């Protein structure tokens, strides 16, 4: 296997601060007007939504807008990103207004489970463990990579053994926690030191620690890492790693919300059929993550191959 090249790009550090640090404060609502798309209401889909949503005409979706291009706060202080665009296209087909509320990532699933929100959407990885407590409407793929400071003084490469004995940062409640656990398992199987881990409450805190040298690397969505490199004046590099799997990401609803799940799935399917979905993915440059056959709980019903310890994995 040839060594993977790091992905880098440049823009202003001012933009980095606006997009990666400011964010919406947890508990605040960023109202968004449904854009005129020309799409018509699909009555059978609207009829599957909860009565409370149909009566109010509003479907509340929680997010943690710190993961561009998935979700972030733009210069106008509004929630933006490809997830936002997908929701705004789904809204007229469902015959309701969709509003997003910013909360911390580790509150997304509990917020849906408690009934505070009808749904949550923030490039949330669908996995079998999470499916025990919530239901996923999967709408895209996601790939993950190692995020390092551009200085990369520890010499981290695509070789999984290059992170052994180093210090990783992960955001609490994310799939990245188990990814780092797999790194440690791989290191120990090769007789190397485990990875030290620090949990952070937000991606912004994690990235600040990475830039300051308090951690050696983090794990992130590849598209998010590339965006962070792009807007941070080369502060970060993105390094693919064979132990980081391709996954499904989905809209989260309550485990018994079958009608809501079917309504959201129907809206996505309609958007794929008429080409709207592809236009949104192309706008954000993530065509490779397009999922042409969305579904429910695909981690179980259509599982992807998960990586296993492989030492240097060909490096």
Give an overview in words.
- 32% of the residues lie in helices and 24% in strands.
- It is an alpha/beta fold and 315 residues long.
- 47% of the residues are buried.
- Helix 4 (82-94) runs antiparallel to helix 10.
- The chain has a seven-stranded mixed sheet.
- The longest helix is centred in the C-terminal third of the chain and has 17 residues, at 258-274.
- The protein folds into two domains: 31-141 and 248-301, 3-Layer(aba) Sandwich (D-Maltodextrin-Binding Protein, domain 2), CATH 3.40.190.10; 144-240, Periplasmic binding protein-like II (D-Maltodextrin-Binding Protein, domain 2), CATH 3.40.190.
- It starts with 12 loop residues before the first helix and ends in a 14-residue tail after the last helix.
- It is elongated.
- Strand 4 (71-73) and strand 5 (79-80) form a beta hairpin.
- The chain has eleven helices and 15 strands.
- The chain has helices at residues 13-22, 43-46, 51-56, 82-94, 108-113, 176-189, 203-212, 222-231, 258-274, 276-283, 298-301, and strands at residues 28-30, 58-63, 66-67, 71-73, 79-80, 97-102, 119-125, 135-142, 144-149, 167-171, 196-200, 217-221, 236-240, 247-253, 290-296.
């Amino acid at each position: 296997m040839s060594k993977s090249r790091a992905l880098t790009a440049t823009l202003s550090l001012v933009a980095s601060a606006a997009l990666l640090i400011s964010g919406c404060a947890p508990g605040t609502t960023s109202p968004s007007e449904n854009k005129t798309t020309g799409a018509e209401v699909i009555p059978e889909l609207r009829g599957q939504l909860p009565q409370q949503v149909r009566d109010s005409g509003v479907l509340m979706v929680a997010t943690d807008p710190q993961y561009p291009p998935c979700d972030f706060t733009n210069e106008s202080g509004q929630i933006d990103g490809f997830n936002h665009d997908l929701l705004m296209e789904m809204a007229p087909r469902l015959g309701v207004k969709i509003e997003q509320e910013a909360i911390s990532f580790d509150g997304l699933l509990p917020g849906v489970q408690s009934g505070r929100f009808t749904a949550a959407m923030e490039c949330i990885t669908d996995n079998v463990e999470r499916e025990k407590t919530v239901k996923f409407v999967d709408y895209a793929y996601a790939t993950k990579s190692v995020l390092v400071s551009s200085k990369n003084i520890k010499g981290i490469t695509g070789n999984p053994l290059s992170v052994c004995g180093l210090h990783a940062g992960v955001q609490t409640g994310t799939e990245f926690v188990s990814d780092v656990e797999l790194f440690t398992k791989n290191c120990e199987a090769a007789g190397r030191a485990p990875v030290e881990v620090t949990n952070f409450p937000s991606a912004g805190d994690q990235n600040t620690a990475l830039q300051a040298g308090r951690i050696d690397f983090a794990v992130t969505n590849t598209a998010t890492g590339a965006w962070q490199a792009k807007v941070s004046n080369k502060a970060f590099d993105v390094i693919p790693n064979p132990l980081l799997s391709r996954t499904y990401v989905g809209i989260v609803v309550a485990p018994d919300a079958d009608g809501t799940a079917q309504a959201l799935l129907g809206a996505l399917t309609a958007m794929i059929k008429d080409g709207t979905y592809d236009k949104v993915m192309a706008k954000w440059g993530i065509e490779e993550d397009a999922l042409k056959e969305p579904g429910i709980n695909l981690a179980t019903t259509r599982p992807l191959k998960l990586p296993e310890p492989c030492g240097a994995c060909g490096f």
